[in-house]
Amino acid sequence: MAVGGTGNYWEILGGTGGHWAILALGLTMTVHNLYIFDRAGTCLHYSEWHRRRQAGIPKEEEFKLMFGMLFSLRSFVGKMSPTDMRDGFVSFHTSKYRLHYYETPTGLRLVLNTDLSVACAREALHHIYSNLFVELVVKNPLCPPRQPVQSELFRSRLDAFVRGLPFFAPRPA
Fold first, then answer.
1. Where residue 126 falls among pLDDT bands split at 50, 70, 90?
2. Which end of the chain is more exposed for a tag (fewer CB within 10 A), N or C?
C-alpha cells in the first residue's frame, strides 16, 4: 500500500505488535540529533548523526535555549488549545526540519530532530525511553540520577537503535 503526503510517497510494509516498517520511495530521510533533558532542564544526553550545521554557540548554551523553547512552547500550546489535549505538544516543523517531542510522567523530555519527511517519531522516542533509558540508565546503579549519562552501553545501543530506524538514512551530499 503506498501512502502519499506533500508529494512524498512511502510504502507501508506491515508489521506486528503495532510496529510498522515504512520504506521511503524516492525519498531520503534522516535523523539529525537527540536531546534528553530532566525535569529541571539539565541535558542528560545529546547525540547527533546527520547534523550539517552547528548552532555556532557552546553546547551548554544550545541546551539551555532548546529547553527554554520547549518549556515555553509546551506552555503556550497548553494554554491556547481549544480542547483538552491528552498528549499535548508532540512536534513542530520549520522549513528545514521537524522536532519530535516526548515527555514522560516523571518530567523527562526527549527531543528528536529529523528531516521533514518523518511524520511521527513518537513510538521511536517511547522505545528510547522505556527500553533503553530506563533499562540501561535508570536501573543501572553506576549511573547517578539527574547526572549526564556516562554509560557507553546506553550510547552504543541508542546509536544502533537510531541507525536501524526505517527513517534513518544519510542525506545526499
1. very high
2. C
